[in-house]
Design a protein that fits this description.
The protein is an alpha/beta fold and about 400 residues long. About 25% of the residues lie in helices and about 25% in strands. It has a five-stranded antiparallel β-sheet with strand order 2-1-4-3-7. A five-stranded parallel β-sheet has the order 14-13-15-16-17, sandwiched between helices. About 40% of the residues are buried.
Length: about 400
């Protein structure tokens, strides 16, 4: 009888001694959802820790919170930094991640991840969101959840699902800061030079048609794309030159193209000197005196041609792509005449990537709005590239 009474009193004491309360939820889709719809649970006497498990599967998160035995919880937490894939199990640089955290105070697992044994970890400062705002619960300390928003009409978050980011105990954010970007197209950000060449001037119809359709599809302006260009053969045709500063809007640009580029002339030697055209571009078009903007705006050269270059353009193009002071991106749009084969590998050597080479039939009747879709998809893959920084 005394033994039974002792056991009952011991159990009552242990129950009283275990006063830890932990937040509990199962398979919540976000920290906010867990805290809103979860419940506060009184832990068993042998559960002296509160655990949070944050799984990320692609774009989706799954949050579980519960009471846990302290040793078991700490063992789980120790797996965060174990190797997995190209980094660790708890990560921000892979498609999937699982992070576990333990803490040992009442309600300590409410909110983001808090790992008591690791102390108050600090994540790197997030990049500021141009045209937007960042609101963090605990700055860049472990467990802080930052919310992002855009505050300018016409701008929205990209990637769209990155509305929040949590500072993990590993010192890494769950997501990088998003950007506030406009729809792309029509909003692209480039100082874009287009260089035209055809084996015969009358064969420029498809090129001019494609260029006009592209112009109509984008917004031309100081905070978006601007164009310059020229026609070249053995040398660059000076009278065809269009500088960024030669027009004020998209309509005046169209008139310049009609006046200067629709009646080109080739040199008598019949050469296709693309290197000379690139040198002309760097000396006369991609310069501040021609209206080129600062280094915050990406520079792009597009070569439109239905002939293979006669010179080794690839080496000079590589130098321009790798120029640390003014890196230049390249596209090549090849227009294939019947019976004339373009050297695809040579075009890839100029651009540095097959993704930047696009081929078309040299027939104006087969050029339409669908012709530029693939170019749009490539240029607009990351709308964050098309936002002026620091605003």
């Amino acid at each position: 009888m005394k033994a039974c009474l002792f056991i009952a009193l011991a159990c009552a004491f242990l129950s009283f001694a275990s006063s830890l309360h932990c937040w509990t939820c199962r398979n919540a889709r976000s920290v906010e959802s867990c805290d809103r719809f979860g419940t506060l649970e009184k832990c068993q006497y042998n559960e002296q820790a509160c655990q949070t498990v944050h799984r990320r599967i692609g774009y989706f998160s799954v949050i579980n919170k519960r009471c846990k035995q302290a040793h078991a919880c700490e063992t789980n937490q120790a797996q965060n930094d174990r190797p997995s894939g190209k980094s660790t199990q708890c990560n921000t640089d892979q498609v999937n991640s699982v992070c576990r955290c333990c803490c040992k105070d009442d309600k300590c697992n409410m909110g983001g991840l808090k790992c008591s044994s690791r102390g108050d970890q600090v994540c790197p400062a997030l990049e500021p969101v141009s045209y937007g705002s960042t609101d963090c619960t605990r700055g860049n300390s472990s467990g802080s959840v930052c919310s992002f928003g855009c505050n300018r009409p016409g701008y929205s978050l990209h990637p769209p699902r990155h509305t929040t980011s949590e500072c993990f105990t590993s010192g890494k954010w769950s997501n990088p800061a998003p950007c506030c970007a406009r729809q792309c197209p029509p909003f692209l950000l480039f100082d874009s030079v287009i260089l035209f060449h055809a084996d015969q001037p009358r064969n420029t119809g498809a090129m001019m048609m494609l260029a006009e359709i592209f112009r109509q599809s984008v917004e031309v302006g100081q905070d978006s794309i601007r164009f310059a260009g020229a026609y070249f053969s053995g040398v660059t045709m000076i009278t065809s030159r269009i500088r960024f500063s030669d027009y004020t809007d998209s309509d005046s640009l169209r008139q310049l193209v009609i006046n200067r580029l629709h009646n080109p002339k080739n040199t008598e030697d019949g050469l296709v000197n693309a290197t000379s055209a690139l040198e002309f571009t760097m000396q006369n078009l991609l310069v501040p005196e021609a209206g080129m903007r600062g280094p915050e705006v990406p520079k792009k050269i597009t070569i439109m041609t239905n002939q293979n270059p006669d010179d080794d353009t690839a080496e000079y193009a590589r130098q321009l792509r790798n120029n640390p002071d003014l890196p230049v991106e390249f596209l090549v749009l090849g227009f294939q005449n019947e019976g004339m084969e373009l050297d695809y590998n040579k075009m890839v050597d100029i651009t540095g990537s097959p993704d930047r080479v696009f081929l078309f039939e040299n027939d104006p009747t087969k050029i339409n709005s669908d012709s530029i879709k693939e170019i749009h998809d490539f240029l607009c893959a990351n709308p964050c590239r098309h936002v002026l920084p620091g605003l």
